[in-house]
Recover the amino acids of this structure.
């Protein structure tokens, strides 16, 4: 009976989560629709500013302060939104399998991130003050349009905190049968509230990129839902949601890696190896669809404003994507390297070692294609700085069809690494194993051929429309190969025997540095992409509606932006180390002899 | 502690590498500053200068060439003279213009009135143009600027330039005073370096210490070519194309943008490079 009640409660919580998280829409839309009808009048145009409208604080650059604080807030927010997502999943796996190791790991994940919630809130407050101080008119304008959602946002923090505390402090209290169900439901609610917070904040920033619900002078129509549900809202929501999971996985992976390196005994080493593997697995699972989410976002930016799209991909920011290629190359290579090293845990892995070098060659080749720039739209001065618009031989590799082809191959071969890892400790027992393997090879071969054909034929021998459109069947091909191969593999290895016990902890120390690289590259990449997302607004606070008249209205160079991101990343990682350290301190006890009365 | 320091060092080196690559591994392009309203003196302008102004706006503030270029993002406009009447007569035309000048003006301020097949926004069946109105938003051309672009479009389209140079420049409501206040004509440059900076010669040519490689090296041009050749090359750059270089790389309207004194300064300077 109790279990049934708990299941019903869980069901309702799922419904609530879907309503809150996936739409966020019903929650806000009702109030907004009522309000929109009555509020069409009474709003003024967006303020036209002069440099004198931006307060100055001695010794501080307003843009720099807002930039760094916003970035720090975003990193922490991404982390604390991501951790509960996979904590919830791991806890559910633990419940399902009744394997306590999962429950312990989920608890450790949430434990190490708990202080990060406070830091997220503190940085959010700091960002608010910085905006009010340095950009009062912009903040004033936005707060008129988003007054309801800003209030809901603040109130949701209470809900977030309440659920978080119950979830964390009640972990050991809410164990077993109905209590565990209640605990899992709290985890779901925590995710629902956290995701809703992200959706609301995303609405404000995407409004600045693709304003809606306002006329060309910036006069608000009174329809807040239109302003929230602006053109780029959902593309950013999807991209951030996926990226946050990958990011959270990478940060926790770095934690596990450090604990592995400093482990005092084999048991501890095995535990943190297992934790690092799971964190990396989460990061890779989210990393694989991330390029597609990014592509969708870029396509939607183009669809919203061709000018903005060209500024994004063809102007000075084009070089940023070369830096991005370096970072994504680092992410894919480190994730793969970790998997390859991890195969050493199994005695059966050597069957697959011979293939690794070929995977590495494809990954590096694909990385180099992604890394190649093409024609850039430049002013004369920029042309002068570059010495030409494109490279005559490598230029063709710089266009999107080549890059789409490269990224699809990167993803497919990263999946292949995972497939080998998955198989490494298994021995199939089905009679048709050979046929199954041939089918899998055929599936991969056909997929690769199709991706190459689509990329080369449509990329270079048809017109622009097909060049872009060909990316969709490429993505579908990758998807079909991954899903088809997984299904096939699960049948081939149904009832398979283990080659031997997995030796958790049997992995070289250098593999842990792949996890550190993953975390650092993710952090830095997020900072860089934050710069471009904001930078494509150029000299507008709200694109085409509210112009930035401050002394800092110009777009900084990539080198300057990189330095800002680096400094912010160092501050962030320092704070993360503090967060992890404090989590460790909380479970340490020292008993000084003779200090307390006996 | 040793492990901790090793990890910290690894992270710092990684971040340092990313930062160093971004600073030294790629060109540091200083983005153009936010556009400012230029003062336009229409009182002393003839139609050629007005058309040249349109060219400048078309390639600069108007950001037209972001899309109207060989990459096929938007229709090329050199055939606009041939196509304009046919588009006016097309059943899909949804505007109010009655003549070609009106059609061209409409295409600048209400681009969705007629969308060339294959260039509409995705999913709109070529009923909605991705082009923004050039009157507002981030482009925000003023009336004289719009007229200048129109004159330029008529010119490159092989049409008779029917646009008139605006004479009534009273400030419009809400428009900054200086926009309507005609300024002075561009002062003439008095030395080669200023001219080179203005027209970005060194973006493509090697001249002295500056090294561009899109155009021929001019470091010793005075030793191999006479003044007449150099003058002709400035006024009509596609007439003689140096071996190994492509035509149409150098703006063929440079001569129209230069004052006579400036042309001679350039000829003087280049001819003494030996």
């Amino acid at each position: 009976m109790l279990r049934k009640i708990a299941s019903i409660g869980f069901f309702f919580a799922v419904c609530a989560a879907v309503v809150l998280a996936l739409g966020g829409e019903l929650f806000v839309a009702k109030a907004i629709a009522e309000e929109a009808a009555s509020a069409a009048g009474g709003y003024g145009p967006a303020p036209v500013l002069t440099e004198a409208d931006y307060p100055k604080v001695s010794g501080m650059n307003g843009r720099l302060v807002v930039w760094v604080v916003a970035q720090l807030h975003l990193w922490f927010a991404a982390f604390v939104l991501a951790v509960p997502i996979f904590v919830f999943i791991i806890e559910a796996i633990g419940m399902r399998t009744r394997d306590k190791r999962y429950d312990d790991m989920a608890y450790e994940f949430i434990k190490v991130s708990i202080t990060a919630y406070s830091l997220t809130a503190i940085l959010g407050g700091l960002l608010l003050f910085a905006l009010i101080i340095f950009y009062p008119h912009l903040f004033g304008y936005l707060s008129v349009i988003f007054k309801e959602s800003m209030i809901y946002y603040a109130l949701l923090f209470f809900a977030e905190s309440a659920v978080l505390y119950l979830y964390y402090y009640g972990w050991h209290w809410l164990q077993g049968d109905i209590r565990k169900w209640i605990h899992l439901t709290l985890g779901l609610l925590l995710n629902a509230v956290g995701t809703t917070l992200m959706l609301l904040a995303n609405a404000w920033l995407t409004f600045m990129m693709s304003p809606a619900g306002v006329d060309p002078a910036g006069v608000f129509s009174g329809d807040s839902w239109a302003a929230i549900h602006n053109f780029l809202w959902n593309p950013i929501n999807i991209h951030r949601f996926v990226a946050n999971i990958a990011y959270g996985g990478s940060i926790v992976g770095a934690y596990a890696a450090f604990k592995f390196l400093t482990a005092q005994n084999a048991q501890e080493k095995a535990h943190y190896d297992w934790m690092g593997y799971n964190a990396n697995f989460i990061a890779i699972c989210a990393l694989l669809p991330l390029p597609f989410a990014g592509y969708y976002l870029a396509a939607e930016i183009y669809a919203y404003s061709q000018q903005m799209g060209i500024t994004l991909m063809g102007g000075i920011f084009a070089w940023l994507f070369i830096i991005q290629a370096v970072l994504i190359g680092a992410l894919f290579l480190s994730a793969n390297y970790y998997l390859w090293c991890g195969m050493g845990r199994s005695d059966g892995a050597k069957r697959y070692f011979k293939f690794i070098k070929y995977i590495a060659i494809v990954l590096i080749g694909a990385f180099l294609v992604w890394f190649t720039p093409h024609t850039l739209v430049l002013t004369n001065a920029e042309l002068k700085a570059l010495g030409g618009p494109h490279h005559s031989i490598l230029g063709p590799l710089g266009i999107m069809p080549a890059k789409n082809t490269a990224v699809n191959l990167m993803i497919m071969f990263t999946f292949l690494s995972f497939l080998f890892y998955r198989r490494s400790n298994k021995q199939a027992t089905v009679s048709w194993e050979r046929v199954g393997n041939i089918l899998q090879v055929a599936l991969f071969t056909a997929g690769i051929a199709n991706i190459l054909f689509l990329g080369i034929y449509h990329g270079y021998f048809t017109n622009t429309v097909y060049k872009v459109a060909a990316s969709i069947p490429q993505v579908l091909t990758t998807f079909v190969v991954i899903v088809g191969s997984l299904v096939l593999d699960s049948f081939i290895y149904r009832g398979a025997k283990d080659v031997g016990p997995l030796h958790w902890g049997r992995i070289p120390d250098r593999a842990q540095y792949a996890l550190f690289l993953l975390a650092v590259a993710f952090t830095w990449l997020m900072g860089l992409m934050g710069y471009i997302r904001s930078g494509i607004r150029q000299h507008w606070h709200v694109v085409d509606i509210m112009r930035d008249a401050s002394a800092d209205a110009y777009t900084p160079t990539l080198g300057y932006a990189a330095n800002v991101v680096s400094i912010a990343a160092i501050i962030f990682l320092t704070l993360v180390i503090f967060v992890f350290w404090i989590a460790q301190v909380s479970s340490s006890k020292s008993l000084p002899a003779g200090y307390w009365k006996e | 502690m040793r492990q901790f320091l090793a990890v910290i060092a690894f992270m710092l080196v990684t971040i340092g590498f990313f930062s160093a690559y971004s600073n030294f591994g790629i060109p540091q392009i200083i983005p153009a500053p936010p556009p400012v309203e230029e003062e336009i003196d229409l009182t002393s302008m003839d139609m050629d200068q007005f058309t040249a102004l349109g060219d400048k706006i078309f390639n600069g503030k108007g950001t037209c060439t972001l899309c109207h270029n060989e990459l096929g993002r938007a229709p090329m406009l050199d055939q606009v003279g041939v196509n304009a009447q046919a588009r006016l007569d097309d059943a899909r035309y949804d505007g109010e213009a009655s003549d070609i000048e009106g059609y061209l003006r409409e295409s600048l301020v209400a681009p969705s009135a007629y969308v060339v097949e294959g260039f509409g926004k995705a999913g709109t069946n070529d009923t909605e143009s991705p082009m923004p109105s050039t009157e507002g938003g981030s482009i925000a051309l003023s009336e004289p600027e719009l007229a200048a672009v129109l004159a330029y479009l008529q010119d490159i389209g092989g049409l008779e330039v029917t646009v008139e140079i605006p004479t009534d420049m009273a400030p419009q409501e809400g428009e900054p005073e200086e926009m309507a206040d005609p300024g002075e004509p561009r002062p003439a440059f008095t030395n080669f370096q200023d001219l080179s900076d203005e027209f970005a010669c060194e973006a493509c040519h090697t001249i002295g210490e500056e090294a561009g490689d899109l155009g021929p090296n001019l470091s010793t041009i005075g030793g191999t070519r006479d003044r007449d050749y150099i003058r002709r090359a400035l006024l009509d750059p596609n007439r003689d194309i140096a071996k190994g270089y492509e035509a149409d790389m150098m703006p063929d309207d440079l001569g129209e943008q230069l004052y006579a004194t400036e042309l001679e300064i350039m000829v003087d300077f280049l001819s003494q490079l030996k």
Strands of chain A lie at 426-427, 497-498, 540-542, 546-547. Chain A touches chain B through 60 residues (CB under 8 Å). The first strand of chain A starts at residue 426 and ends at 427.
